[in-house]
Design a protein that fits this description.
Blueprint (H helix, E strand, L loop, with lengths): L11 E3 L10 H12 L7 H6 L2 H11 L11 H12 L4 E8 H11 L4 E5 L8 H11 L5 E4 L5 H4 L4 E5 L5 H6 L3 E6 L8 H5 L13 H5 L6 H28 L1 H5 L8 H4 L4 H19 L4 H19 L7 H21 L5 H30 L4 E2 L2 E2 L3 H25 L11 H20 L7 H7 L1 H17 L2
Parallel strand pairs: 1-2, 1-4, 2-3, 4-5, 5-6
Antiparallel strand pairs: 7-8
Helix pairs in contact: 1-3, 11-14, 11-15, 11-16, 15-16, 16-17, 17-18, 17-19, 18-19, 19-21, 20-21
Length: 478
């Protein structure tokens, strides 16, 4: 009797970018570099002149993505685990640099072999095909990929497995090899791109109407139209900065219990498409801003530069990050003044400074409280550690109460401040005192999972208090 040797399993080769992970690691590395060492971005043209493989090599050395938190595709991981249980050799073959590929392989512990770019050869398309054919022979491997660039590899593979197939790609691949399986994703939410712009944060831009409200000039249609244009320009500009901020914050967002569900952090929105929207939104903001006085464009430019500085560096610097956040809110008020020519009084400026500083402190304090539920005594948020929470609460609470004091002094020192029934404004002081205390209590109880102003607009208690304050202001106007 002759014993037959069992046939050796055909290796299963897996691509990385867009296949195993729902992101582009090269783009992510660029934003990691921008955040860690922004001046090194000046080296990009020189690195690129040396070739894409060399560019990836430099980026991997200086800006390694946070591999454990990458948006891996769970259905594909499950498929690979089943293949491994059947003793199928699994190979990671990627155009990413070898350092990144080895880190992914070490994290997942699924791969028997890793092929990657090495600083000289960019292992993509035909280069990847030639490497795999040299190693396993033509039709000697099955290949898992996701884009048209992988067509050259599929032409030399025994079978094809497609992930998140582009329209018509499966039929084209079927012309050169057998398509064994297609991992399709659920239809993307058409509102996904809109959600990434954080339209719920646009409500913060309503601060551009504050100078008109404080001057009792909301009934002037021309000024109201100018304030609306300022609101629109700021909303487009803010969304541009939100996308940039999210791209730079991908590693930290993926470690956050709530932010990891954002479209970019979860991988549901491709980073390249988000990046393409950034200049389009900024161009829209500038186009609207050209309809307003030049002073408004100056404030808008200052807002954009401060936001960019905050995303790159300031958000990781204690106290300065809070001052920057407060400044961004204050610039919205100044933008309303620049658009309408109605400039705020010293009382309004002082009130805004103290109130916005308190709200910014709430944001940082709330992040610390949330992270405490995850990391315990080792929790930290940005540059703040858990033991800083009591100090943040003291500083932020004091600043909020100072805002109430400024309002009270305004009523006392200006006699009527333009109000026919100025004594009613004392009720606003009481309601504002209650609201600030309530907001700090919600943050202390870990119930504030978003920006304080956005939380206030969603919270029924805050909405009631805001409505009451608005009614009182209207009643106090002669």
């Amino acid at each position: 009797m002759v014993a037959h040797r069992a046939e050796r399993p055909v290796p299963l080769v897996v691509d990385l970018d867009g296949t195993l992970v729902a992101t582009d690691l090269l783009i992510e590395s660029l934003f990691v570099l921008a955040k860690r060492r922004p001046l090194r971005l000046l080296m990009l043209p020189w690195w690129l002149l040396q070739g894409r493989a060399r560019l990836k090599h430099h980026l991997a050395r200086e800006a390694m993505p946070d591999v454990p938190t990458l948006p891996y595709r769970p259905d594909l991981i499950e498929y690979l685990e089943a293949a491994k249980r059947h003793r199928v050799p699994i190979v990671l073959a990627t155009a990413a640099d070898g350092r990144v590929a080895q880190a992914v392989a070490h994290h997942l512990k699924l791969f028997d072999t890793v092929f990657a770019s090495d600083g000289i050869v960019n292992l993509k398309g035909e280069n990847k095909r030639d490497r795999l054919v040299a190693e396993f022979g033509a039709q000697g491997f099955d290949y898992v990929g996701s884009g048209r660039i992988d067509h050259a590899v599929w032409s030399a593979a025994r079978k094809a497995i497609l992930v998140r197939s582009e329209p018509g790609l499966a039929a084209k691949v079927a012309e050169v090899t057998e398509v064994e399986r297609v991992f399709e994703e659920p239809s993307s939410d058409p509102l996904l791109y809109l959600k990434a712009l954080r339209p719920h944060h646009w409500l913060k831009n309503a601060l551009v109407f504050l100078p008109l409200a404080a001057a009792h000039r909301l009934d002037e249609i021309e000024l109201l139209l100018q304030a609306f244009l300022a609101f629109l320009a700021f909303s487009l500009c803010a969304s541009s900065t939100y996308l940039l901020n999210d791209l730079m914050d991908l590693p930290s967002d993926r470690r956050h219990p709530h932010k990891r569900e954002r479209a970019l952090a979860s991988g549901r929105l491709p980073v390249l498409r988000a990046l393409a929207q950034v200049p389009l939104l900024l161009a829209g903001a500038l186009a609207v801003g050209l309809l307003l006085p030049w002073a408004f464009l100056g404030v808008l430019a200052l807002y954009y530069m401060l936001t960019l500085s905050y995303s790159l560096r300031l958000k990781d610097m204690v106290i300065l990050d809070v001052l920057a956040l407060a400044g961004l809110h204050a610039l919205r008020v100044m933008a309303g003044s620049a658009a309408t020519g109605v400039w705020p009084s010293a009382w309004l400026v002082a009130f805004c400074v103290f109130l916005f500083f308190s709200l910014a402190m709430i944001k940082r304090y709330a992040e610390l409280v949330v992270m405490r539920t995850i990391d315990g005594l080792h929790a930290h948020a940005r540059a703040y550690e858990l033991e800083d929470s009591e100090l943040l609460a003291a500083l932020g609470g004091a600043s909020g109460y100072l805002a109430v004091l400024v309002l009270a002094l305004y009523i006392s020192e200006t006699a009527n401040g333009g109000f026919g029934r100025h004594e009613l404004i004392w009720l606003v002081c009481v309601l504002l005192l209650y609201w600030i205390s309530y907001m700090w209590l919600m943050a202390h109880r870990a119930r504030m999972h978003d920006d304080p102003l956005v939380f206030a607009l969603r919270d029924h208690v805050s909405r009631i208090l805001m409505a009451l304050m608005a009614i009182i202001f209207i009643a106090a106007v002669p």
